[in-house]
Specification:
The complex is a heterodimer of chains A (about 725) and B (about 260). With about 725 residues, chain A is α+β, with helices and mostly antiparallel strands. Chain A contains 31 helices and 16 strands. In chain A, strands 1, 2, 3, 6, 12, 13 and 14 form a seven-stranded mixed β-sheet that branches. In chain A, a hairpin with a 6-residue loop joins β15 and β16. In chain A, α26 runs antiparallel to α29. The termini of chain A are far apart. The C terminus of chain A is likely disordered. Chain B has about 260 residues and is mainly alpha-helical. Helices cover about 70% and strands about 0% of the residues of chain B. In chain B, α1 packs across α12. Classes of the chains: A alpha+beta (about 725), B mainly alpha (about 260). At the A-B interface, α3, α9, α10, α19 and α22 of A face α1, α3, α4, α5 and α6 of B.
Chain lengths: ~725, ~260
């Protein structure tokens, strides 16, 4: 009997053991190309050595944070994930990571470059296994520079000597990330946790660095409005003697292009330029930190073999020191030379500060740099403004408030609604009406259900966060404080730059212009192309929906390129016509026009298709009758076609306006709010609060609720004007 | 010119071997040496059977998800739109207004709540979940669009059918639905497009690379520091081809109503 019991217990235990498949390790990463290939090799080796299954998942950079934040707290996240060190502050705050523990034991610290270990240390604890460092260095073309340029002055002196249209140096002058190299040369800092508030970009060093950037661009040493793409293009086509860029550029340059890499030059009499440093690390989630397998996986990425693969295949500037101690085989190896040049640049680089308070520094600094380069402000004024903005964003959210007043308000609203419903139900004839309407409900029930669960609920959940402030997990209830802040323009004059009211005005103008453009072009093309079924027209129609069919991310970039000051097609046409080229993004009116042109282009095919669809419901006889009666084309259009199109067109126009009101992409990609955030619309303001300003989700949600309110109010008024047919 | 110039630029970018945009006014390649299909090879994973298989699966995912979204959205929206066009019932105005209101709320932070809801419904990481989310977001517009179409159809036809003994449901299915076919195909196209181009939700809600849709693949060429514009442009062209083909087919549908002389009342 006892034996039987023992057997039974054993069986159960074995069965349970079998039922539970061995839990593997999950790895998330943002790597592609060679980096991913090298990573796969390391994972494979780990699986073989340890006998643990590793599931790895690539996630695009833009969705990375959102996915980590959604998945990890729900227990659906990975055990190990790769990412840049400068988010550690955020990760720790949101409890997305655990300590590295024995993945990076004390005894192994000496195996890694000291600066990388320093980078992944935060509040005295180590949070990741350092994998590789990224910083910018100087790429130069030996055709223009016979020896590596050691000083900035050497480069500046080449101006005008390199041939027509060749820039001595190209870099993203308007980018705060690249500008940091100049700032650091002068001994300045962008952010300093020791300084009160943290914003450290002020004083003589900062001002001098800005003047230097202005000088470089103004004198034509460096191209204007350079994007990463333009820098790459100029260098690849021999139009730039040297460029500042990171290891990622090498991956994009063709093999037959002759170039070298060297650390950034020194500014004579000032000091060496020191770029920002980012260290990629292998992080453990709180779940993963508990798993020995996960820790072993993270640790294995730092091994000599893994580092060797990541350096040779992934072309990473690895943090593991053993790779750099390897004997040179003496053969010329350009790949290795480039890698070594970047490795040489690392000790001079300055790790990007980890604090979450660093995050809101970028935007104001970028604006200041742009302003100074454009000549719109002195460095001192521009920096003072940047600091004021930073402090405004960082201002402590209001202290927790008792939820009582809000609950009373919500309670009253609910009570009023309930009262309304009761009155309606008790009104004479309600029961009859309700019964009469009964057959209709089975037609609408499922739609109502789906919309409620998957559309309304998430929105309500979002709206509720607007009563809170501070980062998630430490969110404090602040009642209506967020709303009060927004509606009082944060205590500044009501029509000051970036205030709610001015942005609202811009948004309204933006919406009106766009909708007029969409509907106007859509109507004309829709009617013109609807009539006879000619072969050519069919082709035309297909071509005209192209703006809608091609993903807007890349076409928006095409438009931005067209508006470029020096290389844009539009200025080229203007110059050919004998006009002065326009600096599109330095003035509100032109930057706004560029945004509108792009969005009208993106949106008209939609209206065109709606018009074409709506035209099908118009009987040909009616139009023929009008013709017989001697109506002109315009009369037919105005008196017959338009009124008949109205019922189908109107909802599209109303919804189109709503969508345009919230069209964030174009503004973000084309003008990016330039100049000085004036072309931002309400919803891009909300996005900035959510993503660029210390993740103040409550504040962003309050913005969203206010946008909702404004739109609801507007549609009501418009509905009144447009008569009863215009949407209930 | 206005319509095509940026597209021309995208095509040149996709064909350029360096994957860099030339700073030129006329974005045409300098000659055959300037044209290469390398970017298309990168995107489709040509040469590596495993990658090609993955890409094929991702194309299939995109097609399945988008068609399923279009079908689901229209299936949900059509009866509702019909009821909203033909019946008077309690809550009709509130429903219409409510649906319009959902469109006004910018979805700054709805990805995380959606994630939680799908997790609770055990639909996370499934195509079904994604389709439901897409369809739900597309339903309000579809309802408005179809309601307009139903209202434009003369009510006499259905009444005649009902006098002849058809039930309401039969009148809806046999009379009103065929008459609204052009509008339904337009609406399906819209729903298809909304799913076809969506990226953030797909990346957030799906957890396997083999389940990813094309926009997620496309977005993978955008890095933190640099973007492989050549590959992105090539991918964008690949993504837009099915839409154009679909539109080419749909436009016949769209215009059939016209050539047939419309519905005679």
């Amino acid at each position: 009997m006892r034996k039987l019991l023992a057997l039974l217990v054993t069986l159960v235990v074995v069965a349970l053991g079998c039922g539970e498949p061995p839990k593997g390790v999950t790895l998330w990463h943002p790597y592609r190309g060679g980096e991913e290939e090298a990573l796969k090799l390391a994972v494979l080796r780990f699986e073989q050595e340890r006998g643990v299954k590793v599931t790895s998942l690539f996630i695009p950079y833009e969705a990375y944070i959102a996915k980590l934040e959604a998945a990890i707290p729900r227990g659906n996240g990975p055990d190990v994930f790769l990412g840049p060190h400068n988010r550690i502050g955020e990760y720790v705050l949101h409890q997305l990571i655990g300590e590295a523990g024995d993945a990076l034991p004390e005894s192994e610290l000496a195996r890694y470059e000291p600066i990388t270990v320093e980078s992944i240390t935060f509040r005295g604890k180590r949070w990741a296994v350092p994998l590789a460092s990224k910083c910018v260095a100087l790429y130069y073309n030996p055709r223009f520079y016979t020896a590596p340029p050691k000083t900035l002055e050497e480069i500046v002196a080449k101006k005008g000597q390199l041939g027509h249209g060749v820039f001595p140096l190209a870099y993203e002058a308007e980018s705060e990330y690249f500008h940091a190299s100049f700032l650091h040369a002068y001994g300045g800092k962008m952010f300093d946790p020791q300084v009160e508030g943290g914003f450290a970009m002020e004083g003589e060093a900062a001002e001098k660095s800005l003047l230097m950037a202005k000088e470089l661009v103004g004198s034509g040493v460096v191209p204007e409005e350079a994007s990463g793409d333009l820098v790459k293009q100029l260098f690849a086509s021999g139009k730039a003697g040297a460029v500042m860029s990171g290891p990622w550029l090498a991956a994009d340059l063709k093999d037959d292009l002759d170039y070298r890499v060297t650390p950034l030059p020194t500014i004579a009499g000032v000091g060496p330029m020191r770029p920002f440093l980012t260290v990629d690390g292998a992080f453990l989630t709180p779940e993963g930190a508990k798993s020995a397998d996960a820790r072993a996986l993270a640790r294995s990425f730092g091994s000599d073999a893994s580092a060797f693969e990541r350096a040779t295949i992934g072309k990473q500037v690895v943090a593991t020191r053993s790779y750099w101690a390897l004997e040179d085989d003496g053969k010329p190896n350009r790949q290795l030379e480039i890698l070594r040049a970047f490795h040489d640049a690392v000790p001079g680089a300055i790790p990007i500060p980890v604090s979450t308070a660093m995050n809101p520094v970028w935007d104001p600094v970028k604006n200041a740099i742009r302003k100074v380069i454009r000549g719109a402000a002195t460095p001192r004024d521009a920096l003072a403004e940047a600091k004021a903005r930073y402090e405004d964003v960082m201002r402590e959210p209001k202290a927790a408030e008792s939820p009582a007043p809000l609950l009373v308000v919500v309670g009253l609203v609910l009570l009023a609604a309930a009262f309304g419903v009761v009155r309606r139900v008790r009104a004479p004839g309600f029961a009859r009406e309700f019964r009469a309407g009964k057959p209709a409900y089975k037609y609408v029930l499922h739609a109502a259900l789906v919309i409620f669960v998957l559309v309304v609920l998430p929105l309500v959940a979002g709206a509720i966060t607007s009563f809170f402030a501070g980062p998630r997990d430490q969110a404090r209830f602040v009642g209506l404080a967020n709303y009060v802040e927004i509606l009082t323009a944060r205590g500044k004059p009501l029509l000051s730059n970036g205030s709610f009211y001015l942005t609202l005005l811009v948004t309204v103008v933006w919406t009106v212009l766009n909708v007029i453009g969409h509907v106007g072009i859509g109507l004309v093309l829709g009617i013109a192309l609807a009539r006879p079924m000619l072969k050519l027209r069919a082709a035309y129609r297909v071509l005209l929906i192209l703006p809608w069919a091609v993903p807007s991310y890349v076409t928006a970039l095409a438009w931005k390129g067209m508006f470029h000051r020096q290389f844009g097609a539009i200025n080229a046409i203007l110059v050919a016509l004998g006009a002065e080229p326009i600096s599109w993004f330095s003035k509100f009116s032109t930057a706004f026009a560029a945004n509108v042109a792009t969005n009208v282009w993106l949106g008209f095919p939609f209206m065109m298709v709606v018009v074409m669809g709506a035209l099908t419901s118009i009987s040909k006889d009616v139009l023929e009758a009008a013709e017989v009666d001697g109506a002109t084309r315009w009369q037919t259009f105005r008196l017959v076609t338009l009124p008949l199109l109205k019922p189908t067109l109107l909802p599209a126009v109303v919804l189109g306006s709503v969508w345009t009101f919230n069209m964030f992409n174009v503004v973000y990609l084309v003008s990016g709010g330039q100049p000085d955030g004036t072309t931002d619309i309400l919803v891009s303001e909300a996005y900035r609060w959510a993503f660029a300003r210390n993740a103040q989700l409550g504040y962003a949600a309050a913005y969203a609720v206010i946008i909702f309110g404004v739109l609801a109010l507007m549609s009501r008024t418009l509905g009144r004007i447009g008569g009863s047919e215009a949407k209930a | 010119m206005y319509a095509l110039y940026p597209v021309l630029w995208v095509i040149t970018l996709a064909l350029s071997p360096t994957g860099a945009s030339e700073p030129r006014a006329i974005p045409l390649p300098h000659g055959m040496s300037d044209v290469s299909l390398e970017n298309f090879r990168i995107v489709t994973g040509a040469g590596d059977p495993e990658l090609r298989w993955l890409f094929a699966r991702q194309v299939a995912n995109s097609l399945i998800v988008s068609f399923a979204t279009a079908a689901t959205a229209v299936a949900i929206a059509t009866p509702a739109a019909y009821a909203l066009a033909r019946f008077e019932f309690v809550g009709k105005r509130t429903g219409l207004r409510g649906m319009l209101l959902t469109q006004m709320f910018p979805g700054v932070a709805s990805a995380v709540p959606l994630y939680l809801i799908l997790d609770a419904l055990r639909l996370l990481d499934t195509r079904l979940g994604l389709v439901l989310v897409y369809a739900a977001t597309a339903v309000p517009f579809a309802v408005f669009q179809l309601r307009g179409a139903f209202m434009a159809i003369p009510v006499d036809l259905e009444e005649a059918a009902m006098v002849d003994g058809a039930t309401r449901t039969q009148a809806f299915l046999k009379v009103a639905l065929p008459a609204a076919r052009p509008a339904i195909s337009v609406t399906m196209l819209f729903a298809f497009m909304s799913a076809w181009n969506e990226f953030i939700l797909a990346a957030t809600l799906l957890g396997r690379e083999s389940a990813f849709t094309l926009p997620v693949v496309l977005q993978s060429y955008v890095g933190e520091y640099n973007t492989q514009w050549g590959a992105f442009a090539a991918g964008a062209i690949i993504v837009s081809v099915p839409v154009m083909a679909l539109f080419y087919v749909a436009q016949r549908q769209l215009l059939s109503g016209l050539t047939a002389g419309g519905v005679k009342g």
